[in-house]
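dumping this here before i forget
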Amino acid sequence: MNTQQVITRHDTTMSLNYPRFPVTMAQGEGARLTDTDGKPYIDLFSGFGATVLGHCHPDLVAAVKRQAERLWHVGNLLHTEPQTHAAEAIARHGFGGRSFFSHSGADANEAAIKLARLYGREHPGSKGPRFSILSMHRSFHGRSFATMQATGDDKVSAGFEPLPEGFRHVPFNDSSAVAEAIDDTTVAIMVEPIQGEGGVHVPDDDYLPKLRTLCDQHDLLLICDEVWTGCGRTGRWFGYQHWDFQPDIMTLGKGVGGGLAVGVMCAVDRVAELYDARKQGGVRHATTLGGNCLAMAVTTAVFEVIERDALLSHTKAMGRHAMTRLSRLAERCPGLLAVRGRGLFLGAQFEIKGDVTWFNNTAEVVQRSLDAGILVNAVQGNMLRLAPPLTIDQSTLDEGLDRLESILLG
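structure:
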């Protein structure tokens, strides 16, 4: 089928949740894509960060082929080697802990929220079980009912009222606001180490360690939403590792499956035991297809490739290079106010004049970039986000940045 045939048939049978571009991708390799009309693209966004090793990485392809010929799925009442290997990789590169596998970052955050509620019942306040969770303005934690409420953006939950109780929002990067909001019902603080949908906001160096201290003082759980920042995206295995602290619970999605549907909730032993069916007398949280063998084989391969190919140091180097180029561009580009991020998770903030950004709006930049054969993303109306595969080489990165510069300086 050609592009228009695909679009016509798609729009006849698909739920139209997304404002899709009139492009149909047909093939990918590394940081490059080709559509059904044969037009090539440089991918500087990795499918919202999910194709962390690029498209059709040979090691991931090989992992799928090997596993597909052995075992796909047996359900979570039986043990499998792929789940075990994936959980060991997450524990080894993180803070230890025990992993629960699901299908997405939202699923992982739901599992974390439910686990926090159990903790609040086991460790009640003076008025009974603790249940409320503090999260941040401009945060994003998912689109399920609980995670919509945890998300600090009313646009995400608008129209779905009434929403679950037990969530309050405070400003990001303000530990004093968090301290003031803690009350006798509070059981956890939920935070992204670097905000993604909020505009690639990097906190001050003392912010997250101060949240850890507050949690220790008030017997709260610290939940780090690493859906964007996990699996090497920022130049560390996990985003929290840029600062001197450890969370009680970490959630993963996007890159942890290399492009397959994988979510992970990893909790320290003392908290994870609240999901232990042997100790709790039954199942408290579950999933049917989470942790299936195909997905787990790919997750394990993601960690193996990042370690073998020294992609953390490569990501840091490519991130510094991109940051330098974008910062120099800001000196020549009127309206480009700031560039921020860590590793290959970068944002460029534009000036807003009236109701639009300097460049009319960042959606226009995205469309013109697509026309020029590069994939980027806009968020918050005035932010351009870049998140290329960790495997991208400097020449490909420069080629994409050259095209972006031409658009912005055009």
